[in-house]
Model the fold of this input.
Amino acid sequence: MSEPLVTVRNLSRTFDVSKPWLNRMIEREEKRFLRAVQDVSFTIGRRETFALVGESGSGKSTVANMVVGLLPPSGGSVSIEGVDIWKRDDQARLRTLRKKIQMIFQSPFASLNPRWRVDRIIAEPIRAFGLMRDNAAIEAEVGRLLKTVGLDPADGAKYPHEFSGGQRQRIAIARALSSKPEFIVCDEPTSALDVSVQAQILNLMRDLQDEFGLTYLFISHNLAVVRHMATRIGVMYLGRLVEVAPARQMFQAPRHPYTRMLLDAVPDLEMSGRARKPVDGEIPNPITPPAGCPFNPRCPLANGRCRTEMPAPVSDAYGTVACHAVAEGRLAA
Ligand SMILES: Nc1ncnc2c1ncn2[C@@H]1O[C@H](COP(=O)(O)OP(=O)(O)O)[C@@H](O)[C@H]1O
Ligand code: SF4
Ligand SMILES: [Mg+2]
Done:
C-alpha cells in the first residue's frame, strides 16, 4: 500500500469526570477519570473507507473528534498527509490541510445554522477558507453543489427547517464538499434517518467518493450499514480497538469474540450462515473497567488469563486482533 492518507498512533483520551472539589472533600472521594479512548492505532489509505463500529459509548465519536482536530488527545498522534495535526509546529501546512478535512455529523442540526439560508450555509467554508471571492461565482458554485447532492439550486433560498431529515443531511454533505476536501469524517451520518432514506444517503456518499476520490472515516454502531460502505473495518469495545480487518474478511471470518457477537445480531446476513442472536450483556462502566480483557465479563471464551491480562493487538495477513483465545488458537474457526 502507498503512504496512508491518515495515520492514527496510540491515540488516547481521558476525561476528568470527578465531582466538584468541595463535594469530593466532604464525601472523601478521589478524582475519577474515564478512559474514553485507549491506545487506538489505524491507518486509512487514499480513497479508502475505514469504518469504526461498536456499541454506544465505545469511544467512536471521541476518536472522530480527535481525528478532525476538534478534541485534543491525552496521548498518541494523528497524522494527515504526514502532518501531525496536534503538534502545531507546522502551522502553514496545517492551514492548507484544514480545508482538506471535513466532518458530517449524525444530526444535521449540529452543523446547519437554523437562522441561515441554505446557500449561505453551503458557502460558509468557501468564504471561511477564502477559496472564492466573487459573489456570483460563489452563487454558481453553491447551485452546482446542490445539484451534486440531488437537490435543486433554488433550494438555496430556503431555510433548513423547510427540508426533511434526509434532505438536511444532503445539505450537510454539500457544505462539507464545498471546500473540496479529500478526507471526510462521517459520525453516524445516517443513524437518525429512516431505513429507506439511509440507503439513499449511503448511495450518494459512495457516488461522491468515486466522483471526487474521497477518503472516508465512517462511524456507525451498525455493522449492516458499514458492510456496504467500508473497505476495512475496526471494531471498538470500551475505548479500545479489538479487531481490524478488510470488510469482506470481517463478515466471512470474524475472529474476535465481540465481533462475532455483533455479527450474530445483524439481520439478513446470509453469508455467515449463523442464526441471529441478540447481543448479550451490557457494556461495563468505563470509569471502572474490568481487569484483564475488557470484554471478559461478556465473553463465552474467557478464562483465568483473560481476567488478569490485557490482550495485546496481534497483526497478521488478515488483520489485527487483540484476544488471548485467538492468539492461543483456542478459537474454532
Ligand atoms: N466530554 C466528555 N466528558 C466526559 N465523558 C465523556 C465526554 N465525551 C464522551 N465521554 C464518555 O466517553 C465514552 C465514549 O463516548 P463516545 O466517544 O461518545 O462513544 P460513542 O461515539 O462510541 O457512542 C462514553 O463513556 C462517554 O460517556
Ligand atoms: S481475551 Fe479472553 S475474554 Fe477477551 S475476547 Fe479474547 S477470549 Fe474473550
Ligand atoms: Mg458517537
